[in-house]
Design a protein that fits this description.
The chain has helices spanning 3-16, 20-35, 39-44, 87-99, 120-127, 148-157, and strands at residues 50-51, 59-62, 65-67, 70-72, 81-84. It has 164 residues and is mostly helical. The chain has a single domain (3-157), classed as Orthogonal Bundle (hpI Integrase, Chain A), CATH 1.10.443. β3 (65-67) and β4 form a beta hairpin.
Length: 164
């Protein structure tokens, strides 16, 4: 995204951020843009890897990524890194931690406030006008999971393929 596009998306998120899910989606967007995290890194990020009150400045550590439905180490040593956070992003993450029921060090930073899961497809579904049908999220915050395999089987049983 260009800086101009980012400048248009952030205010749009602010206008839409009325429920916990869209408020969190806004913080996910700001974290991706502000810290340069990849999708798998966002999904695997835990509070123990985010230091917001460090005297040397707010930072986050990327030690784990989410690959093929589970946590894994980054592909290379360069993937493991510490990223300094700007004041705006640090404040947003601080406020996000105050709002979320998942505050423990071992909890994931980005979780659905009601189900404990984070399903990136949900964001896409919401943007298209509706959430996915009745299947639990593939990622949870230290709780049991329902993987995407079940979702795929359900679609196949209904004779539908995943949209591309």
């Amino acid at each position: 995204m260009t800086p101009l596009e980012i400048g248009k998306v952030e205010p749009a998120f602010s206008e839409l951020a009325k429920d916990p899910w869209t408020r969190q989606a806004r913080v996910v967007f700001l974290t991706v843009v502000g810290a340069g995290l990849r999708r798998g890194e966002i999904r695997a990020l835990r509070w123990c890897d985010v230091a917001l009150a460090d005297p040397e400045g707010a930072r986050l550590r990327v030690r784990v990524t989410w690959v093929c439905g589970g946590p894994d180490t980054p592909k290379s040593q360069a993937g493991e890194r510490t990223i300094a956070l700007g004041k705006v992003l640090a404040d947003e993450l601080f406020q996000h931690r105050q709002r979320t029921p998942f505050k423990g060090d071992d909890d994931r930073v980005f979780c659905h406030s009601l189900t404990g899961g984070l399903d990136p497809g949900r964001l896409r579904g919401d943007a298209e006008g509706g959430a996915h049908e009745g299947v639990a999220s593939a990622i949870t915050c230290g709780r049991s999971t329902t993987g995407g395999t079940r979702r795929s089987r359900m679609r196949l049983q209904r004779g539908r393929r995943r949209p591309r």
